[in-house]
Amino acid sequence: MKVVVIGGGPGGYVAAIRASLLNAEVVLIEKDSIGGTCLNVGCIPTKALLHSAKLLEESKNFSDYGIDIEIKGYKWKRIQEKKSLVVNQLVSGVRKLLEISKIQIIKGEASFVNDCTLEVKKEDGNLETIKADKIIIATGSMPIVPQVPGIKDHDICIDSTKALSLEAVPKTMVVIGGGVIGIELATIYSSFGTKVIIVEALSKLLPMMDGEFTDFIRQILESKGITIMTEAKVTSIENVNGIAKVNVESNGNFKSLEVEKVLVSVGRRTNVDKLNLDKAGILHDKGRIRVNEKMETNIPSIYAIGDCLGKVMLAHVASVQGEIAAENALGHNSIYDGKTCPSCVYTNPEFAGVGFTEEELKEKGILYTIGKFPLYSNSKSLIENDGVGIVKLIFGEKYGELLGAHILGPRATDIIGECALALRLEATKEEIISTIHGHPTITEAIREAALAAEKRAIHIPNK
């Protein structure tokens, strides 16, 4: 069985390796770098910069912990070098895994000739035709560029890719978009001294986030000196002697902001323009490929995964879908279930959530109870970040099963794994409570929140 995977990102290379483990002959086509957006210009470099930013922020409070060290500042070039070192090591590791799996890698851009044939345009301009028994599309996404006058005309307007490799830290920056990418990059540059202004069209930041947490994280960002404008939109951008004049309208009021850089981060769109999907007869909705729970398109031999579906654009989603697509391509019966998919935002402190938010449950008319535990009452959190944050668990009213979990605090993106597993197993309040958590740990707050839902919390007053 010959399986061709189009795209070498976290969905594509995982699909390729899984197919190889199932004894398929695998060809992986990638036009840029193995690892895709995530490893090269997305998740990994962003988190590397965020870690440096966090270290710099924490250094300002060393004296509070009895450590007397003079921090002279930072060297941006060395920070960038460390970021590149991490990226290169991970990309090299993936390449080695593909080599061990005996996967053929072709560098080029693929397009469909028909439902079983691809044409690949290589770097040297030559064309290669490839036939396959099964094809997995994993071409990812690209940044959306909004229709704002002037936004495409100046190099002072940058996307998230360019924001990760600026030669110097700008003194001022407008971030258009208050989603995950915008918030994380705003956090990075604010930590290094940039005066950041976030302009968001919606009424709140991070729309997928529980409303209570949105307010909390906004307060934290503003306390760090970040200006946030919600229900506001950029109407035009001008270049005035190398400075960006960003014209903003908010509730009928107009304001001009002058900054060195404008980061455009209003979201991403599917990267399928050059695939010629119609030649293969693949159904799609304006570039968003349609699949079923087995990741199958309407063409039995073709599968699609990850961002090119235009739904949940997360690397961990693409990877899981890649495994499922590979398994089904080789005769298995695997199903994708996004119930336990966590959302993670690497601010300082971190945010993570899984399952339903309160707003979603109210909209669906599902009855629920809540348990909340503030992290100022958690010993490990108090040690790590003065206890800034909160854990919120949402349980079904009738059976007491976990419906959603939301954490703002240190290591939230790691701790959410316990909640995702509990959600998968339909764990109840009592089952979480009866699970012994180590002390002192931040995970104790999960159990305490479950206790609070039953008004039997130990370390906070019960209301």
Describe the structure.
- The protein has 463 residues and is of the alpha/beta class.
- It has 14 helices and 24 strands.
- It has helices at residues 12-21, 36-41, 43-59, 76-100, 160-163, 180-191, 211-223, 277-280, 315-329, 358-364, 379-385, 412-424, 429-433, 444-453, and strands at 2-6, 25-30, 104-114, 117-122, 127-131, 134-137, 141-143, 157-158, 172-176, 195-199, 227-229, 232-240, 243-250, 253-259, 261-264, 268-270, 284-285, 288-289, 302-304, 343-345, 350-355, 368-374, 390-396, 402-409.
- Strands 5-4-3-2-1-6-19 form a 7-stranded mixed beta sheet.
- A hairpin with a 2-residue loop joins strand 3 and strand 4 (117-122).
- Helix 1 runs parallel beside helix 9 (315-329), helix 3 packs antiparallel against helix 4 (76-100) and helix 3 packs parallel to helix 6 (180-191).
- It is globular.
- The mean pLDDT is 96.
Shape: globular
Helix content: 25-40%
Number of DSSP strand runs? 24
Count of discrete alpha- or pi-helical segments spanning 4 or more residues: 14
Largest sheet: 7 strands, mixed
Rg calc: 24 Å
Distance between the termini: 62 Å
Classification by helices and strands: alpha/beta
Fill in the keyword field for this structure.
463 residues, seven-stranded mixed sheet, globular
In short:
It is built from 14 helices and 24 strands. It has helices spanning 12-21, 36-41, 43-59, 76-100, 160-163, 180-191, 211-223, 277-280, 315-329, 358-364, 379-385, 412-424, 429-433, 444-453; strands spanning 2-6, 25-30, 104-114, 117-122, 127-131, 134-137, 141-143, 157-158, 172-176, 195-199, 227-229, 232-240, 243-250, 253-259, 261-264, 268-270, 284-285, 288-289, 302-304, 343-345, 350-355, 368-374, 390-396, 402-409.
